[in-house]
Amino acid sequence: MSIFEAVVIGIVQGLTEFIPVSSSGHIVLFNKLFGIEEGTVTFSVAVHVATLIAVVSVLWRDVFEMIKKPTSKLTLLVIVATLPLGIVGFVFKEIIKGFLETGVTVGFGFFITGTVLWYAEYANKNKSKNKKFEETSFFDAIVVGIAQVIAMLPAVSRSGSTIGGALFRGLNREFALKFSFLMSIPAILGPALLESIDIVRAGGETGVDIMPLIFGMIAAGISGYLAIKFMLKVFAKSSLRIFSYYVYTLGVFVVIDQLFTKRFF
């Protein structure tokens, strides 16, 4: 992987981690486009960590309060919402890793993302409730957490699934967005820790040179920060359906390539 390729993929990762179009799906696509096969999972985890830094820098007040008050309702909501991901991720880690490396489910994943986004807007319009933080229940958190599990498949957007799950439960759009971003913290930390353990066991071999890794992380952190700011400003006034049309289109092109042209897959 060259520095240029790392920067491009880092920018793509940062933008698509928080704009609900699937960062994992886009990283797989760009890895296929650039012909990158070695170190893809390690690099993906590294740039995800960079976007984690972006989350903390934007939502630092909420993060500080969660650390300061570990038994507060917000902290407990995030913990409860993360439990399904932690359990499923631990059990099916190697299978998910294989999907990331091969990209076999990418086309299908984009279709899932588009459907989740489209239906979430429909369901939210037909709900009378507009729950704010105080009204959000732990059952709501479990539902959003289950939605996050689906996003373990490449091209199923984590932010799209969690925001969609929150809207389905009738959560306020602003809190749905913030809750989704806060949920990304443990969702990123967990895989990063497991991947770090694997790297240590492999004798420190990552399959990626250090300079591309560093530049990719910087690019992901900056673009992630801008994506969060964009979503916080735009999401309250805009529908998610515009993103569903985009991922549906990507899904069509990927499936055509997988079944017929086989240029990248």
Distance from N terminus to C terminus (CA atoms, Å) equals 19 Å
- Uncertain runs: none
Name the assembly state: single chain
Count of extended strands: 0
Q: Structural class of the secondary structure composition?
A: mainly alpha
Mean pLDDT: 87
Spell out the helices and strands N to C.
Answer: HHHHHHHHHHHH
The number of distinct helices, counting runs of at least 4 residues, comes to 12
* Sheet with the most strands, sense and barrel status: none
Question: What is the overall shape?
Answer: globular
Strand percentage, roughly?
Answer: under 5%
Using only C-alpha atoms, the radius of gyration works out to 18 Å
Index terms:
0% strand, 77% helix, globular, 12 helices, 265 residues, mainly alpha
Concise synopsis of the structure shown:
The chain is mainly alpha-helical and 265 residues long.
What does this structure look like?
Helix 1 (3-18) packs across helix 3 and helix 9 runs antiparallel to helix 10. The protein is 77% helix and 0% strand. By secondary structure, the chain is mainly α. It has one domain (3-261).
